[in-house]
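Session log. Operator J.P. requested a structure for one protein chain; no other inputs attached. Running the standard single-chain path with token output.
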Amino acid sequence: MTDRKLVKRELAVTLTTAEIMEKAKDLAKLQQDKVAAEEQAKSAAATYKDRITMASARINILSRDISNGYEYREVDCEWLYDYKKGKKILIRTDTQETIKTEDITASERQEGLRLEDKKAA
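Structure written below.
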């Protein structure tokens, strides 16, 4: 008598039509899952890129302000008119610092005359 021993080997096996159809469905589903995951990754990357860009812009502004020791803000200012000298002076109301001095324009002189006429009346 001959001794027999069963062993397993990986060998090519022709697929049935039903097996091919099942694999095709699996493939289509996995392809759709992959596309969806890629879209989610792109969306997440865009979100993080926007967050990084916004943080970088804020960091740049803060480092500039710290380095310069100042920042630009809206400050209330007031024009003071000296009609006798023909000059007007722009003053910061918070520090009383002179920002600039300019000649009074012809139309501003007219306004000044109207103010003086009202004071006299």
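Operator note: Residues 35 and 41 are 10 Å apart (CA to CA).
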